[in-house]
Amino acid sequence: MVAALIAIMFFSFIVWQHHFFTMGAGANVNAFFGIMTMVIAIPTGVKIFNWLFTMYKGKIRFDAPMVWFLCFVVTFTLGGVTGVMMAVPAIDFQVHNSMFLVAHFHNTIIGGVVFGFLAGITYWFPKIFGFRLHDKLGKYSAYAWQIGFILAFMPLYALGLMGAVRRIDHYDDPSWQPFFIVSAVGVLVIMLGVGLFILQLAVSIWKRKELRDTTGDPWNGRTLEWSVPSPAPEYNFAIEPEVTHRDEWWYRKESKLAVPKKSSYQDIWLPKNSGLGIGIAVCAGLFGFAMIWHIWWLGFAAFLAVVALIVFRTYADEPEKRISAEHLYHLDKGRKQ
Question: pTM here?
Answer without folding.
Answer: 0.83
